[in-house]
Amino acid sequence: MHTSSKFLLLVAVAIGFLQGVAGRDIPQNLKTFYNNVKAAGSCKNILKGGLADTDNGPKTFSYCGDHLNDMGVVYIQGTNGQLAGMDIDCDGNQQGPGNDGRCKSSGDTQSTTAFEDTVKGYNAGIKELNPFVHPYVVFGNDNEDHKSGFVTFNPEDYGIKPLSVMAVIYGMWGDTNGADGSRSLVGEASISLATACFGTSMNGDNGHETADVLYVAFTGSHAVPGRTGAKWNAQSYSEFETSISGLGDTLVQGIQPSRKRSY
Length: 263
Description:
This protein has four helices and eleven strands, in the order E-E-H-E-E-E-E-H-E-E-E-E-H-E-H. It is α+β, with helices and mostly antiparallel strands. It has a six-stranded mixed β-barrel. It is globular and about 40 Å long.
């Protein structure tokens, strides 16, 4: 849901504290970073605020640049130690491999994502992302219809590239939030990523509501796998995730919580 032709989708590596799901164990530097962000309580260098993580929730979430300069990352943060939840996105090619019917309950699924043209341009065996295979994150907000009360955020303004790799730390950027519902939203990912993090109870109408998920985007072209750095025509989540895991590991090594904050 919430697609736009203007902004970004990021593919993601899921790294978590939880056991018994498909995500990988969290390395110590990310565990420390996660805990430090929560302990900070809120963002100091707000790149864009006034967002919510549920349709009826408070507009207390922001895209945070506290570590934009020292670590080259942007992440979503709320207040009082909150991070974000994970709503389910089923946009893209729902007729491809992995479709088990769990997206049928979604009421606003679209057949395209924000970067359909980029995916096609790779000539890598697919024409669009598959929400059951590609672990993408909805990151960025647009308002093409100029609706009152909605805010916009273009991650490219801060050096984040389309279809670059993200880290999702839970207790690829692949789409953007449009001006749907009653407010600008954050905290949404493809059903394959949500399943990796929280299991098969996730479906088109049931996401993870607790605001304990940290979405971390990396700046720079080095975070983009491109045509040959990922197996875009993978037939399963695990096959695709394996193809980007090396790049993901390299990127997360750059998150060193001992560095001085940028504000």
